[in-house]
């Protein structure tokens, strides 16, 4: 398990409230605080990769600049509200990237004698690095700045999973490295008197400042900075937005964003569910069933005990109590067998009778589990029985109600994975009840790779796999991931979810779904309900 250095690293980067922000509800969006750095969640993040596992699109990044209190954050939130039902959005504030101050600088700051409005006050390289990571669909741990203390805190905030990123700040368009990351550049223009009035009201209410100090700082630093740096940066903007009465400009921006998201969309679940229609095997044929040896799966040996367990689990007559008991038993067996994929080194111990015994020990300090909710939760009890005292995270991935595509709704990953310098050495057990189309499994693996986990350090543990489903696509994209299952079912059958009226189904025949046969039914429902 981790040594003292790693424990200190994990403690330093521990999020304040899982997943990383407190939540409150407003309209149809979920606002995750603190106020200046906001994650807005509506219906999840669609696939950002192709069948080969490689990223096909970056996050769409918007840079919003303007004078202090010009309404940049308000414009950013107007854009989000106007877009309506959209994937996950991050509003990233430049204010988080103020530089760390020494004792002398802190004294000047508390006396309102430190220039926070000059470009040199911002750690531009860190801002650009964090934004570049988020744009490239990687995680980032951004600094937290306290305006009351005039200091960057030790705490950091974990961010990941945005389809749209809005970077806002007075210098958002000043730095060339930042400008190169934007897909759309916006400048918010506002009357100087209105900006000053807003600044006084904000700083008194939110930052515990007095009016005299606010005015002195405004005349000494804010106004010169606006004239010398902020206003000239408007020449780099693609669009100028008024600080008020800006509905037309917001609508134009939202129309452009919708078009860009549509062009970047990637639908692949059907191609995974019935891969023989789209992909050819190594032999050049398009067989609906892949040979087991071609799939490179680790399957539990077929013993009478194992067949007896599966017979009980597959039967619709099995009581919930018996189903839970045998699911826990099967998950324990699976995880025990999955341990063989960890590295081992020789170890010599002394027995109670004083004799040396030569054996083996696991050669991995950072081990964790990640459950694909909710059916993957059925393996958690077996995982905890076998691997003691290791962190366990979760991913909530569900099908979109209209398209059937997987949607990432929530990320709750262990610190080993959230921190990239630890993730490269972490071993992760992915837990899910079955791999049918493989869409959720594919997305989960891609998420771990985005965080820096090595492909050959991922062990996927599942009850059943459909031979004719998406497992063949999954194995081609991620050949180094170890997949261990209890049984291999023959096929995935196409069906329809009754009552859904949508594109291509005006009569309400339903949304297309895929069902494993013979399968075990809805494992999550049978286990939890």
Explain what this protein looks like in three dimensions.
The chain has 2 domains: 4-264, Rossmann fold (3-Layer(aba) Sandwich), CATH 3.40.50; 296-528, Rossmann fold (3-Layer(aba) Sandwich). Helices cover 33% and strands 25% of the residues. The chain has 18 helices and 22 strands. The chain has helices at 4-12, 72-83, 103-110, 124-135, 176-179, 192-206, 211-230, 247-264, 269-273, 292-295, 304-314, 320-338, 380-386, 415-418, 420-423, 439-450, 471-477, 523-528; strands spanning 22-26, 29-33, 38-41, 60-66, 89-93, 140-146, 151-159, 164-168, 184-189, 239-242, 298-299, 344-350, 356-362, 367-373, 392-399, 406-412, 427-431, 434-435, 458-466, 482-489, 491-497, 511-517. The longest helix has 20 residues, at 211-230. The protein is elongated and about 85 Å long.
Please give a handful of descriptors for the protein shown:
single chain, 529 residues, alpha/beta, Rossmann fold, 8-stranded mixed sheet, 25% strand, elongated, ATP binding, PRK/URK, EC 2.7.1.48, PRTase_dom
Short description:
The chain is α/β, with parallel strands linked by helices. The protein has helices at residues 4-12, 72-83, 103-110, 124-135, 176-179, 192-206, 211-230, 247-264, 269-273, 292-295, 304-314, 320-338, 380-386, 415-418, 420-423, 439-450, 471-477, 523-528, and strands at 22-26, 29-33, 38-41, 60-66, 89-93, 140-146, 151-159, 164-168, 184-189, 239-242, 298-299, 344-350, 356-362, 367-373, 392-399, 406-412, 427-431, 434-435, 458-466, 482-489, 491-497, 511-517.
């Amino acid at each position: 398990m981790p040594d003292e250095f790693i424990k200190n690293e994990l403690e330093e980067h521990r999020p304040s409230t899982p997943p990383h922000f407190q939540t409150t509800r407003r309209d149809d969006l979920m606002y995750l605080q603190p106020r200046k750095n906001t994650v807005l969640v509506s219906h999840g993040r669609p696939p950002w990769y192709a069948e080969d596992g490689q990223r096909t699109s970056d996050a769409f990044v918007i840079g919003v600049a303007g004078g202090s209190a010009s309404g940049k954050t308000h414009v950013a939130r107007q854009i989000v509200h106007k877009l309506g039902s959209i994937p996950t959005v991050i509003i990233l504030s430049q204010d988080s990237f103020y530089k760390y101050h020494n004792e002398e600088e802190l004294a000047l700051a508390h006396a309102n004698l430190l220039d926070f409005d000059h470009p040199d006050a911002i750690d531009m390289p860190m801002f650009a690095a964090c934004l570049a990571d988020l744009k490239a669909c990687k995680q980032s741990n951004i600094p937290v700045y306290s305006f009351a203390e005039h200091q960057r805190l030790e705490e950091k905030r974990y961010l990941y999973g945005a389809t749209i990123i809005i970077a806002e700040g007075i210098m958002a368009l000043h730095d060339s490295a930042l400008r190169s990351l934007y897909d759309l550049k916006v400048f918010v223009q506002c009357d100087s008197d209105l900006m000053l009035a807003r600044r006084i009201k904000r700083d008194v209410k939110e930052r515990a400042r007095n009016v005299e100090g606010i005015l002195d700082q405004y005349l000494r630093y804010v106004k010169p900075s606006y004239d010398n740096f902020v206003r000239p940066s408007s020449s780099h903007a693609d669009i100028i937005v008024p600080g008020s009465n800006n509905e037309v400009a917001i609508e134009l921006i939202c129309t452009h964003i919708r078009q860009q998201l549509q062009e970047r969309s990637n639908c692949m679940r059907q191609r995974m569910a019935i891969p023989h229609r789209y992909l050819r095997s190594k032999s050049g044929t398009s067989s609906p069933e892949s040979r087991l040896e071609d799939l490179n799966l680790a399957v539990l040996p077929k013993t009478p005990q194992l067949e007896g367990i599966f017979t009980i689990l597959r039967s619709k007559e099995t009581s919930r109590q018996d189903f839970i008991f045998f699911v826990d038993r099967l998950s324990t067996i699976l995880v025990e067998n999955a341990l063989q994929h960890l590295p081992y080194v020789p170890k010599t111990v002394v027995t109670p009778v004083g004799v040396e015994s030569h054996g083996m020990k696991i050669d991995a300090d950072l081990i964790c589990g990640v459950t694909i909710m909710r059916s993957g939760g059925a393996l958690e009890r077996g995982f905890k029985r076998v691997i003691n005292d290791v962190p366990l995270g979760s991913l909530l991935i569900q099908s979109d109600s209209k398209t059937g595509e997987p949607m990432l709704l929530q990320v709750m990953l262990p610190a080993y994975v959230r921190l990239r310098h630890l993730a490269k050495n972490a071993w992760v057990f992915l837990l899910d009840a079955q791999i049918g189309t493989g869409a959720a499994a594919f997305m989960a693996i891609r998420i771990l790779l985005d965080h820096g986990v090595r492909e050959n350090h991922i062990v996927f543990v599942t009850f059943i796999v459909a031979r004719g489903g998406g497992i063949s696509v999954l194995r081609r994209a991620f050949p180094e991931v170890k997949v261990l299952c209890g049984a291999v079912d023959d096929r995935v059958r196409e069906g329809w979810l009754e009552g859904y009226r949508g594109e291509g189904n005006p009569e309400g025949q339903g949304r297309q779904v895929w069902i494993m046969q013979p399968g075990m039914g809805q494992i999550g429902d049978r286990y939890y309900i």
